[in-house]
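Q: Here's a chain of 430 amino acids. Please give me its 3D structure as tokens.
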Amino acid sequence: MLLKDKKIQKAWTFYDWANSVYPLVISSAIFPIFYEGYVDSKVMFFGFEFINTALITILSAGYFLLLVFILPFLSGIADAFNNKKVFMRFFCYLGSFSCILLSFFDKNHLEISLLLFVLTGIGFWSSLVFYNAFLPEIADKKDHDSLSARGFSMGYIGSVILLLVCLILIFSSPEEQRPFYTRLCFALAGLWWFGFSHVTFKRLPNGKKVILNDKTTYQKGITELKKVWKYVLRTKRLKRFIYSFFVYSMAVQTIMLVAVYFGTKEINWGSGSNAKMGLIISILLIQLIAIPGAILLSKVSKIKGNLFALKLSIFIWILLCFSAFLVYDPIHFYFIAGFVGLVMGGTQSLSRSTFSKYIPKATKDTSSFFSFFDISEKLGIVIGMFSYGFIEQITGSMRNSIVALVVFFLIGLLLLFQVPKEEISIEAYG
């Protein structure tokens, strides 16, 4: 049953407002700068020596791989018992509380500190599966692009507000107290995420209570997954889109996760605090331009179709990768950052809304369908991050890692051309 309630739709977009502080404050801005400045360039982790940034990329790839295995199973259970909200809330709490505890980050206890970093990421990405699965339930297909774009725009606005608060706290404090206020920002991000998420939880429909120790529960979860997987294999449009999304996600998400680390090491910022300020300006530029970028590409998709808009965004990504390989000066980095913002929001938003349009109409198994969407993204991230981190670890330069991302974008673009505009006739889902 479609829940076309404006209040529910508004509440749904508020989760983007709540959780987007994680990808900005933790993944992109404050934490990377803190980590690069606080942790030694070479670190010991469980007895093995790593380049600090390579360790982050490899750990990130590791927990994404874990998500690939556990989330499809959980989403099947969520669909079987109609309780997406329960799982969404659990992972939201896991991520937000781990984010708060990340404020105790200590390089002398790096294993424990990075465990909190991993748990925060698991909570964020896992909650998104169940959050995204509500989209086809609360809006008509014709509204998916605009509602998805609205959600991402809300996220960018909310995250920029908190980032500005964090920057004021950090740079208005005495030099010797800045590490403390930097850690405080991690706690603020977690509290923001936890607090505003309840605007969403208040409005989203409740499901049935799940009994996790009941064997039939797991059996029903597996049954839901098998049913969805068989349907996907019988399609052409949905299956081919997932293939394409899988490949270009290797590059898109990797760039979003490592952009600041790249800027820190590969751009000639000069002396003093120029690097920190330059990176912060770049991050703000990306976030602010991402808002009109998401809206602009949704408009393009309305006129020329979702596939055209996605092809355009990926082509721009390819040009940006080639440009980044050649960039050394801050002014050129700012230019690239602006274009990254332009396509970042639109690519994410359109990918989500396009997939939501391709799943069977009125299906109740939205979590299971979106789990396959999520598997494609996470497995893509695993390959992208491992490739990026491995190449840096072997060659000692992030610039060489950019080459792999260009290859991923090119293959993803070619596969996107194989997606038919209309679904080939198949038997009904069920």
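Q: Can you summarize the key feature?
A: The longest helix spans residues 274-304.
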